Amino acid sequence: MNQATVTRETLLEPCSEGPRTLTECTLDDGDFSGIDLTDITFERCSMKRVRFDSATLTGARFRNCRGAEASFVQADLADAVITGCDFSNGLFRRARMTSTRLEGTKLTGADLTDAGLLGATFAEVLLSFAKLPGMSFRKARLQRIDFSEADLRKCDFRLAVLEDCSLRNASLDGCRFEQADLRGADLGGIELRDARLFRGAVISRVQAAELLSQLGLEVR
Question: What pTM was estimated for this model as a whole?
Answer without folding.
Answer: 0.87
